Amino acid sequence: TTNTLMKARIAPLGAVHILILAEDHTHARRVEEVRRDFVANVSHELKTPVGGIALLAEAVLDARDDPEAVSRFAARIQVESTRLTRLVKEIVDLSRLQVADTLHEPELVDIPFVVVEAVDRVQVAADSRQIELEAVADERAAVFGDTELLATAVANLVSNAVNYSEPGTRVAVAARRVGDTVEITVSDQGSGIPAAEQSRIFERFYRVDAARSRSTGGTGLGLAIVKHVSATHGGDVSVWSEEGRGSTFTMRLPAASDRAASDSDRQPVG
Ligand code: ADP
Fold it and tell me: Is 178 exposed, middle or buried (0-12, 13-18, 19+ CB in 10 A)?
């Protein structure tokens, strides 16, 4: 490598230029590939509920004389359109996150508030599946960032934990300050994730069991959003899981220092 470095340094300017251009080109091509994959996936994913709605509408027209069948089909149209709305929202969220990899106006985010907000959003689903949700949060946990994005990310983790668990089990959410880091963990006693799949579940539209994901209204985008939100806040997300025992997802984010937090208490940012 010393050799190549030397060569690069003594190469005539023109040659260095070409080298850099070639690298840019490869990067641009990769970005273009990722974009094209995303567009292909999006249109595929949209076709499923749209096609379903079209077929159901036809069925409604055919069943005009059977009011019971009409209401059954109409109810399914409602389910499919809810799914479609959620899918479109998540695609837009994810595209925004991919375009802007930094936050415009970071604010001081109270993590206990984020945890309560996320749990609130999933409570009804948890109750209906008889899953006990418990949450604890260290009141010193604060980060700089976007409250709504963080609430969405934590809610995605809690919602997965609930959807991939059996009735009668527990889901625990905990937020603590560990040194300069805020750790948010979501643990379940659910189905777990096979080791070979664990590195792929954060990819857009990747699902271990597509049928199960669809039946719970999953879009395959939840964890991709969590990953992007964590990265945008200068942190990351990881998973520990054992099949049949459960999973723990951990978001690690740089903590807002106590000093910054109390300064911003006195004079609001922005
Ligand atoms: P989905 O909308 O399908 O839940 P996600 O991106 O949130 O999409 O998750 C991707 C996949 O990872 C899921 O389809 C599921 O197979 C797996 N998964 C995510 N969270 C859990 C969990 N807590 N327990 C078991 N499997 C999970």
Answer: exposed
